[in-house]
């Protein structure tokens, strides 16, 4: 009953959002961002730590600005998901979406080989899959199921509306293999924390753990990797979709032909887009949860030496 009540409440809110002009929604998002960032201070400590980890010299004013803008873009993303099915269609998408590097992106999107499309918690990443599906290029996304089955079904219905099919995070290996063998498009959020046993690299100047499988798809599966982004532009429900880099197995430099190097490469590419507009990155996201085992051991050894 609790899950159903939550779902009905969310549906009620979405219904209200859908009858509001998107410009009014944007103003509401400004208010909600101010409320959550300044008055409630939700996850303020995590956000502050993440920002200072990347910008150690950031002033309080800068931190407050990035925090408020992040919440604004996050709330706006929710409103845009509610509006997109009614406002963005195959006949008018050009009014809402500007595709940078469209020649290079199209080349790989329609390639006979499978494609690994990597993005991060930045801008409105949900709209990238929506738009490519709208253009007749369906994709498959690995995503964790929400605890609320009703909300999970609702979000997946949005994603699958134009052909963005969802693969459950647990037990998806056989399905992923079929996608790659059929030359499909696999979209992955590359900034997910992979635990202490992941591939440790440098992300925005801090150690971060990544899933090794992402690089292995390219290195062993003949699947080009395209690092892309979808960010807000000057108006609500207007986006820029672009590509910061492509790692093609047929043209790959020798320096990128191992898991760690390729993982570092795509994180650098994601970081390029994020640092260009850091206010659209999800600083609330727990990207840097733990430290590498070797760093933890070294710290422990130092403490033991000091105590001796």
Low-confidence stretches: none
Shape verdict: globular
Strand coverage percent: 15-25%
Strand order of the largest sheet: 1-9-8-2-5-3-4
Q: Give the topology string: H per helix, E per strand.
A: HHHHEHEHEHEHEEEHEEHH
Cα-to-Cα separation, first versus last residue: 57 Å
Largest sheet: 7 strands, mixed
**What is the CA-based Rg, rounded?**
20 Å
The count of DSSP E runs of length 2 or more, i.e. the number of strands, is: 9
Helix content: 40-55%
Helix tally equals: 11
- Overall residue-averaged pLDDT value: 90
What does this protein structure show overall?
- The chain is α/β, with parallel strands linked by helices.
- It has a domain at 90-300.
- It is built from 11 helices and 9 strands.
- It starts with a helix and ends with a helix.
- The relative contact order is 0.15.
Secondary structure topology:
Elements: H1 2-19, H2 22-40, H3 44-54, H4 60-87, E1 97-99, H5 102-109, E2 115-119, H6 125-134, E3 139-143, H7 149-160, E4 164-168, H8 173-181, E5 185-189, E6 199-203, E7 206-210, H9 212-221, E8 225-232, E9 239-247, H10 259-276, H11 293-307
Parallel strand pairs: 1-9, 2-5, 2-8, 3-4, 3-5
Antiparallel strand pairs: 6-7, 8-9
Helix pairs in contact: 2-4, 9-10
TL;DR of this structure?
GO terms for molecular function: acyltransferase activity. With 308 residues, this protein is an alpha/beta fold.
């Amino acid at each position: 009953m609790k899950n159903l009540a939550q779902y009905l409440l969310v549906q009620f809110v979405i219904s209200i959002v859908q009858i509001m002009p998107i410009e009014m929604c944007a103003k509401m998002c400004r208010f909600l961002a101010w409320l959550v960032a300044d008055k409630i201070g939700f996850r303020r400590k995590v956000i502050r730590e993440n920002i200072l980890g990347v910008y150690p010299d950031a002033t309080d004013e800068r931190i407050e600005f990035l925090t408020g803008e992040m919440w604004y873009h996050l709330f706006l993303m929710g409103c845009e998901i509610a509006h997109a099915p009614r406002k963005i269609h195959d006949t008018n998408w050009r009014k809402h979406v500007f595709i940078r590097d469209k020649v290079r992106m199209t080349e790989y999107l329609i390639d006979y080989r499978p494609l690994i499309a990597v993005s991060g918690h930045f801008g409105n990443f949900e709209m990238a899959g929506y738009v490519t599906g709208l253009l007749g290029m369906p994709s498959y996304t690995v995503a964790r199921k929400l605890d609320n089955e009703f909300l999970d079904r609702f979000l997946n219905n949005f994603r699958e509306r134009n052909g963005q099919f969802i693969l459950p995070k647990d037990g998806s290996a056989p399905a992923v293999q079929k996608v790659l063998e059929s030359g499909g498009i696999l979209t992955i959020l590359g900034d997910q924390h992979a635990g202490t046993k992941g591939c440790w690299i440098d992300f925005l100047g801090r150690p971060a753990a990544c899933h090794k499988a992402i690089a292995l798809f390219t290195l062993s599966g003949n699947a080009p990797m395209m690092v892309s982004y979808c960010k807000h532009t000057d108006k609500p429900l207007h986006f820029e979709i672009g590509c910061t880099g492509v790692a093609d197995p047929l043209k790959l430099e020798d320096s990128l032909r191992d898991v760690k190097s390729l993982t570092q490469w795509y994180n650098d590419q994601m970081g390029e887009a994020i640092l260009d507009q850091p206010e659209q990155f999800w600083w609330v996201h727990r990207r840097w949860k733990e430290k590498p085992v070797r760093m933890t051991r070294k710290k422990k050894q130092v403490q033991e030496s000091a105590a001796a």
